[in-house]
From TrEMBL:
<protein>
    <submittedName>
        <fullName>Tripartite tricarboxylate transporter family receptor</fullName>
    </submittedName>
</protein>
<keyword id="KW-0732">Signal</keyword>
<feature type="signal peptide">
    <location>
        <begin position="1"/>
        <end position="22"/>
    </location>
</feature>
<dbReference type="InterPro" id="IPR042100">
    <property type="entry name" value="Bug_dom1"/>
</dbReference>
<dbReference type="InterPro" id="IPR005064">
    <property type="entry name" value="BUG"/>
</dbReference>
<keyword id="KW-0675">Receptor</keyword>
<comment type="similarity">
    <text>Belongs to the UPF0065 (bug) family.</text>
</comment>
<dbReference type="Pfam" id="PF03401">
    <property type="entry name" value="TctC"/>
</dbReference>
Length: 324
C-alpha cells in the first residue's frame, strides 16, 4: 500500500476512534438546520444528488437540510464558504473530483486534506466511452488499434480543461498508449453536440448525457469507466476488461466537514448518510440521475481522496494540463 495513503487512513482511523466516548454528548445532533454547500449550479447530477440527500436527511433528522449552491472557480468558492463556517457539523461540503485535481493545477486558499475532515463518499458518476456511429470501431480494442495506427488523428471532445471528461480521456491515452487529440468545450452540451455532428470522433461522457443518444442509435457505446460493470448499463463492459487493465475514471461527490468538527458529530453524520444511501428508495432515485451510491467509512473516504489526488497529479503532469 502507498505509504501516504496508509498514513492518511491511519490518521483518520485514530481520529474517528475517539468518537465512541463522546457519542452521547452529540446524540441529539442536529438540533437545528444544516447547510449543504454544493459547488455547482442547480440542475446537474451533483446538485440533483445533493437535493435527494437533503430531502432524505431532512426526513431522517427532523431538521431542514438546506442546499446552498456556491458556484465558481471549479469548487474553490464552495470550499472557501465551508471553511468560513464553524466546525460544528452544521455546514457540510459536497466535495467533488475537482477538489482533488486542483491542488496540481493552482495554489489554493485551503488544503482539502488538512482543512477538512472526510465523512463519506456519496456517489460516483460513471463515464461512458462513446464514438460517432460511422466510426468503424465497435470495441475498445478496435478503437485502440485504430488510434495507434493513426496517432494524433482521432479527436475526443471534453467539457473543459481539468474536468472529469477531460481527465478520463487523458488517463485513457496514458494507459492505452495512444495519442488522441483533446478538443475543449465550455461544458458537456456543446461537446456532445459536436460529437453528434461528426466534428469530433469520440467522447468520455457522463452517463445521463450519453445514454439517450445511445438508445436512439445516434452514438455507439464502447465501454464504461468504473472498475466493475455499472447498474446504469449492466450490459456494457468496463474499459478495464476491454483491453485497458486498471482503467478507472469517473466523477464523484462526497461529504466533508471543517477540520475540528467533534468526532462524535462526524460519526453521527456518517452513520446517518450511510443508512440513507443504503435505502433502496434512495438508491433508485439516485440511479435515475446517473449516480451510483457508494457509502464509505471516514477512513475509506480519506484513503480515496489521497488516491485521487495522487492519480490526477500524475495525469496533470504527464498531459501538461493547464486551467482555462
Amino acid at each position: 500500500m502507498n505509504t501516504r495513503i496508509f498514513a492518511s487512513a491511519a490518521l483518520a482511523a485514530a481520529f474517528f476512534s475517539c468518537a465512541a466516548p463522546a457519542a452521547h454528548a452529540d446524540a441529539a445532533y442536529p438540533t437545528r438546520a444544516v447547510r449543504l454547500i454544493v459547488p455547482f449550479a442547480p440542475g446537474g447530477p451533483i446538485d440533483q444528488t445533493a437535493r435527494i440527500m437533503s430531502q432524505r436527511l431532512t426526513e431522517l433528522w427532523g431538521k431542514p437540510v438546506v442546499v446552498e449552491n456556491r458556484t465558481g472557480a471549479n469548487g474553490v468558492i464552495a470550499a472557501e464558504a465551508a471553511m468560513q463556517a464553524p466546525a460544528d457539523g452544521y455546514t457540510l461540503l459536497f466535495s467533488v473530483i475537482h477538489h482533488t485535481v486542483l491542488p496540481s493545477l493552482q495554489k489554493l486558499p485551503y488544503d482539502i486534506e488538512k482543512d477538512f475532515l472526510p465523512v463519506t463518499l456519496a456517489a460516483v458518476y460513471p463515464i461512458i466511452l462513446v464514438v460517432r456511429p460511422d466510426l468503424p470501431v465497435r470495441t475498445v480494442q478496435e478503437l485502440t488499434k485504430m488510434a495507434k495506427a493513426r496517432p494524433g488523428k482521432l479527436s475526443f471532445g471534453h467539457s473543459g480543461y481539468g474536468g472529469g471528461t477531460h481527465l478520463a480521456g487523458e488517463l485513457f491515452k496514458m494507459q492505452a498508449g495512444v495519442d488522441l487529440l483533446a478538443v475543449p468545450y465550455k461544458g458537456s452540451a456543446p461537446a456532445m453536440a459536436d460529437l453528434l455532428g461528426g466534428h469530433v470522433d469520440l467522447m468520455f461522457s457522463d452517463a445521463p448525457t450519453a445514454l439517450p443518444h445511445i438508445q436512439m442509435g445516434k452514438l455507439r457505446q464502447l465501454g464504461i469507466s468504473t472498475p466493475e460493470r455499472s447498474a446504469l448499463a449492466p450490459e456494457l463492459p468496463t474499459i478495464s476488461e476491454s483491453g485497458v487493465p486498471g482503467y478507472e475514471a469517473y466523477s464523484w461527490g462526497g461529504i466533508s466537514v471543517r477540520a475540528g468538527t467533534p468526532p462524535a458529530v462526524v460519526a453521527k453524520i456518517n452513520a446517518d448518510i450511510v443508512k440513507m444511501l443504503k435505502d433502496p428508495a434512495t438508491q433508485e432515485q439516485m440511479l435515475k440521475i446517473g449516480a451510483e451510491p457508494k457509502p464509505q467509512t471516514p477512513q475509506e473516504y480519506a484513503a480515496f481522496i489521497r488516491t485521487e489526488i495522487e492519480k490526477w497529479a500524475k495525469v496533470v503532469k504527464q498531459a501538461n494540463i493547464r486551467m482555462d
